[in-house]
Amino acid sequence: MKLPENFPALPDFPSGEVWLAGAGPGDPRLLTMLALHAVSNADTIVHDALVDPRVLELADKGAERIFAGKRGGRPSPQQRDINTILIDRARAGRRVLRLKGGDPFVFGRGWDEAAALTEAGIRFRIIPGITSGLAAAALAGIPATSRDTNHAVILAAGHRAQDGKSAADWEALAKVGQPIILYMPMAQLADITAALARGGMASDTPAAIIQGASTAEERVVESSLANLADDAHREGVGAPAIVVIGKIAGLRQGLLSSMVGWQ
Ligand code: SAH
User: Fold this and answer.
1) Among 31, 47, 50, 182, which is best to mutate for testing ligand 1, by the most ligand atoms less than 8 A from CB?
2) Quick check: 46 and 53 in contact, CB under 8 A?
3) Whole domain around residue 80: which residue ranges?
4) 132 Cβ closer than 6 Å to some ligand 1 atom
5) Count: domains in the chain
6) 214 ligand 1 Cβ < 6 A
7) Do residues 109 and 35 both lie within one domain?
8) At 126, phi and psi to the nearest 5?
9) CB distance 101 to ligand 1 below 6 Å
């Protein structure tokens, strides 16, 4: 790929700076150019479990890699500890890349880290990534919007807040009448779909589950609001997965005869 002369220069990665970047949904070809540049130039990479190994393989062999995510049911590191790692490494003069799945500012605690860096007086840069909710839908042939179905789309987190209270008012969201793209959907799927139905969403509303979007494990399970939780269970859907609920989920069938597979 040859870039034109007036193509914007990729910035220097100064030592002592932290770059908070999104790695996209998985496939390394979905990295932004800035994220690729960051991965190739960082000397410390602090990454989540959702950052695809194929992305990490692009890093310099000598780069320090620090895993900061959930693994094998063990408790995830405290946000405070991650902040401390970022700040300490930056103060030690390293080029620190904080790499998160998808986009760092979509259900990724990216803002918290940026705020901690700000408080510590550490310079940082934000590099957006392709968020998995939109990528998973698109790769499955589901548009986030289409003119005939919706003029808005809700991105919502399905997991409960740590205090045990549900994070979103699902009945109220159902009343908005717009499609919902659910991140971290699996643990509470039965409760969420029941609440959406109580809120007035039709039981035959199309739904789709997209697991492992843009990875070798990618698969799509089509369902409906009423059957979503049972279908997910029966099909053994596991994380990471995105659930799309709304008329947009039914639009993929019209594309499948011509849509070229991703892999
Ligand atoms: N910041 C991330 C979201 C982090 S929350 C982003 O913008 O995408 C983690 C959730 O993201 C997972 O529980 C899952 O719902 C979703 N996710 C991440 N990667 C995914 C993938 N490749 N396929 C499907 N869902 C994915």
Assistant:
1) 50
2) no
3) 18-130
4) yes
5) 2
6) yes
7) yes
8) -105, 130
9) yes
- pLDDT at position 72 is 56
The residues that are catalytic are: 48, 70, 184
Q: What is the pLDDT of residue 77?
A: 78
**10-35: per-residue pLDDT in tens?**
999 999 999 999 999 999 999 999 99
Same domain, 94 and 171: no
Please list the residues that pair with 47 across neighbouring strands: 67, 99
Token pair, residue 223, equals 């369902």
Atom of ligand 1 nearest to the CA of 108: 1
Q: What CATH number is attached to the domain comprising 91?
A: 3.40.1010.10
Does the beta carbon of 24 lie inside 6 Å of ligand 1? no
Residue pair 101/48 in contact (Cβ under 8 Å)? The answer is yes
Pocket test for ligand 1, best of 32, 103, 132 (most atoms within 8 A of CB): 132
Residues (pLDDT < 70) of the chain are 70-76, 160-167, 262-263
Q: Is residue 48 part of a domain?
A: yes
Chain centroid to CA 223: 22
Task: Record the tokens describing residue 61, joined without a space.
Answer: 């062999």
